[in-house]
Amino acid sequence: MNTIKKGDIVGRKTYNKDVIFIVKDIINTKNGKIAILRGLVERVEADSNIEDLELIEKKVIENNLNMLNEKLEKRINQIKLSKEDKNYKIGLLTKNKRSQEKIITGKILHLDGDRKYTEKSYRYYRRLGLNAVVKNIPEYKQPRVVYGLLQAYNPDILVITGHDGMIKRGTRYNDIYNYRNSRHFINTVKEARKYDKENNKNLVIFAGACQSYFEAIISAGANFASSPARILIDFLDPLIVAEKIAFTEKYKYVTIDDISLELRDGKKGVSGVGANGKMIKE
Question: Does this model's pTM top 0.85?
């Protein structure tokens, strides 16, 4: 008897348990029970016959979560060291008394469809001293609320992410309904650009998650998006893009070539048209 239930952490046997998932929901169909799955450490959503699922051992889960946390800490420490080398502290006067400056980084509004990722993203921004508001909002709700949140927080950078995935991989690349959440990301970008036009804001937007419909998200108005090669992107990828824009001065233009080496899979996972930085010095 299969004991898989909502909240369990599982792998798909037919895929050799290559991705670890949390069971988001279980639905009854005429062909049996189907589990809706969300990646534990990757921004992917999928489904599976419940019979194809197997519980993952606690030790394996802990190892994966520890690796994610270690990756976060390593990245945070690397960025902190690089900022110290440049002889300034974010939001404070520089150490050089002859040319004291106040560094003001770009303000980030980050909408994330995953609660745990929301918490980790907020910790990441806070540890780096970035001015960021992170909201846990399901992907399908993001288009409805983004305009009001932009009005409330007036950010310079908008991150729209969560989970995504192709329903039928390797085919129907141009079919919006072959993507689990790309249409929500696209509509959210369009709403954000509507706000942008009405308020003359010039937002920098990152949108997308694993296997997202890259071309349509860029066409909707995003500066950066995932996933050109329809691959799984790393949890950190959207954060790295936002961080890079926030830490770059306004007169400098950031291209994907300036970021790609810091992303797990480079331009296969994330690309875009680029944008000016949002940091100012006073």
Answer: yes
